[in-house]
Write a structure and sequence with these properties.
Elements (H helix, E strand, L loop, with lengths): L12 H4 L14 E4 L4 E3 H8 L18 E3 H4 L1 H8 L2 E3 L8 E3 L3 H6 L40 H19 L3 H14 L4 H13 L3 H14 L4 H13 L3 H15 L4 H22 L3 H12 L5 H13 L3 H14 L4 H13 L3 H14 L4 H25 L3 H15 L6 H16 L3 H14 L4 H13 L3 H14 L4 H18 L3 H5 L7 H15 L8 H21 L2 H9 L3 H20 L13
Antiparallel strand pairs: 1-2, 1-3, 4-5
Helix pairs in contact: 6-7, 7-8, 8-9, 8-10, 9-10, 10-11, 11-12, 12-13, 12-14, 13-14, 14-15, 14-16, 15-16, 16-17, 16-18, 17-18, 18-19, 19-20, 20-21, 20-22, 21-22, 22-23, 22-24, 23-24, 26-27, 28-29
């Protein structure tokens, strides 16, 4: 709701016409300018967007997040024109007249509207918790009959002005106006209750608690004070206190708090159930409970419980996001730094983990969990450095021992990146020791922790090749190549796997000819003649099947002679190439020789070689 046009000085109709909100039909307060160049109150437009994402004036479709911006930024000139409107104060009996841009400063000034007698004392509290929205509750109840009417009227006017700022979501101004009302009439519970709502909406929960308690001292049957006090406790993570508050309020208010009691009791039950699940190691169930709680509250302590559950599941990225948000809102919460350091540790970022632990211990030197985690990180760093140094020195047995101690020390969740990294490093050491089965086991654990861990996949492929399981390696590398496209290492590993598969499938020409791999060309030709006589199809005519088998074998003998009798082709065969690959390379060599001759070198009559 905007600023009432009744307080605008006459003769400015044409001036304020463009600044009248089409939703509340008042002068815009905290104005927003839409993309279609219409001006509305911030709260009015937000409430409108909740039902229909379009302009209230021209029905243009608007994005609720980006369809409008602050008038002072979107159109500074229009903002200055609006601010030049002449208005008078909305407070009764106040004679102030000034520009619209000054009205907020005038209303919240500590020097204006101080008409209350000295006896009207009330401590101006700073508070920190919003909750229920400042419904404009009425205010004369509980005031002494002998209080001067002007003081109470002024306080009620300040409260009404505070309610207007609350509705516009301008909570700092609302707090100042409620505080001024309390300073005038400090024995009206409604004022404290309203200020508690503004504190709650500002995130100042401790101050909201203080104001609710002050309201209840003045009126033990104030339903809204009990509700806001309980909800403020919930935002502080003190669910048992919230349950106790509602139980106490039920004695004074009857059944007015039954719904609130049900909702808060459920939060307390979920908190207890989540903690029990954590103790039993059921992190998935615990995460479900805490996530359900955060749909109803944003308590930092509950968010940190969710982080613990996510760390138990190895969900480090989510834990890092949540702890960053908690630290941003609560920079002095040491436990948030400790949990963030654990997420960094499990993400294998030991330097940042130690940095956050130092900050946690600076904030709370007696934090036992932080101290234990710091010792663990430093010891882990020593093991990892020793393992890497051993690998560089080719002391692979020592490296596996150090990596094993590191894994036992850190006890990282199976899905944590640190678990993937340590298992992959140990797998590489096992590979160098030719402990291929152990290497494959560690690679499997690394890939389980992080399914795109490239070093683990590459080590696994090498172990599979060493065991002769080339087809498995080729299948793995084909899958990895889809994830790491244009990666040189993966492409090389894929090519090697394809080569080994083709090599494994090719016929053994030496075995076919029954000669050793060091046989001479003459020995190969002699062996061919002998084998050819044995496998000539004309000698295997007793059955069609036997003849077909002899023909296939006879053909292979011819291939063996062709390849092994030629030095170049035999060299390629010995290197592992199959018949098709050898043919490709022979053709490539012939093309290269042909192009060389076309360039005029050694083509006769030239004298470029040998003259």
């Amino acid at each position: 709701m905007g600023f009432s046009l009744d307080y605008v000085l006459p003769g400015q109709d044409s001036h304020y016409a463009e600044y009248t909100c089409a939703v509340c039909f008042q002068l815009v307060d905290a104005p927003l300018l839409t993309r279609c160049q219409h001006v509305f109150c911030t709260s009015c437009l937000q409430d409108w967007f909740a039902n229909k994402p379009s302009c209230p004036t021209c029905s243009t479709e608007l994005d609720p997040r980006h369809g409008a911006g602050e008038l002072r930024l979107a159109s500074p000139f229009a903002w200055r024109v609006l601010g030049r409107l002449r208005v008078h104060c909305s407070m009764p009996q106040c004679t102030w007249v000034g520009e619209y841009s000054e009205i907020s400063a005038h209303l919240t000034s500590s020097e204006s509207h101080q008409t209350a007698p000295e006896s009207a004392s009330a401590t101006s509290r700073t508070a920190t918790t919003p909750m229920d929205c400042g419904e404009g509750e009425g205010g004369a109840e509980g005031a002494p009959a002998d209080r001067p009417a002007t003081a109470r009227d002024s306080a009620d006017a300040l409260k009404a002005a505070g309610n207007s700022k609350f509705e516009q979501r301008i909570y700092p101004d609302a707090i100042l106006l409620y505080t001024k009302a309390i300073q005038m009439c400090g024995d009206v519970p409604t004022y404290y209750c309203n200020r508690a709502a503004a504190y709650y909406m500002s995130g100042r929960y401790t101050d909201a608690v203080t104001d609710c308690q002050a309201a209840l001292q003045l009126d033990a049957a104030c339903v809204k004070a009990y509700k806001r006090l309980a909800r403020a406790y919930c935002e502080q993570g003190e669910y048992e206190k919230a349950v106790g508050t509602i139980a106490s309020g039920a004695k004074h208010t009857g059944g007015a708090l039954s719904e609130e009691r049900k909702a808060i009791s459920q939060l307390a039950e979920w908190q207890q159930a989540g903690e029990d699940a954590m103790r039993h190691g059921d992190y998935s169930l615990a995460r479900t409970f805490f996530a359900n709680m955060l749909a109803k509250t944003n308590a930092p302590s509950t968010r940190l419980w969710l982080v613990r559950a996510e760390l138990g599941l190895g969900l480090c990225d989510r834990a890092l996001r949540t702890t960053r948000e908690v630290i941003k809102g609560n920079p002095n919460m040491s436990k948030a730094y400790v949990l963030r350091s654990m997420a960094l540790l499990y993400s294998a970022d030991l330097d940042q983990a130690q940095k956050h632990l130092r900050e946690a211990l600076r904030l709370d030197p007696d934090d036992a969990e932080g101290a234990r985690t710091m010792k663990k990180v430093r010891k882990l760093e020593r093991h990892m450095d020793a393992a890497k140094q051993a690998a560089v020195s080719r002391e692979f047995e020592k490296a596996t021992v150090e990596y094993t101690e590191a894994l036992q020390l850190v006890e990282a969740p199976p899905h944590a990146p640190l678990s993937a990294s340590l298992h992959a490093e140990r797998a590489a050491a096992h590979l160098r020791l030719k402990c291929y089965d152990e290497a494959l086991k560690d690679c499997a654990k690394a890939i389980y922790a992080q399914d795109d861990h490239k070093p683990a996949w590459l080590t696994k492929a090498q172990a599979l090749h060493a065991l002769g399981r080339h087809a498995e390696a080729h299948a793995d590398m084909s899958q990895l190549a889809q994830t790491f496209q244009n990666d040189a290492q993966v492409s090389h590993a894929l090519n090697r796997a394809a080569f080994e598969v083709r090599k494994q499938k090719r016929p053994d020409y030496y075995a076919l000819l029954q000669v050793p791999t060091i046989a001479s060309a003459l020995e190969i030709k002699a062996a061919y003649k002998q084998r050819a006589l044995e496998w000539h199809p004309d000698k295997h005519t007793h059955s069609a099947e036997a003849k077909e088998k002899a023909e296939a074998h006879f053909k292979l003998l011819g291939e063996a002679l062709e390849i092994l009798a030629d030095d170049f082709q035999r060299k390629l065969y010995n290197e592992g190439y199959d018949k098709e690959a050898i043919a490709e390379r022979v053709q490539a060599a012939n093309r290269a020789a042909s192009n060389h001759n076309k360039d005029g070198c050694c083509s006769g009559g030239g004298g470029c070689c040998g003259d």
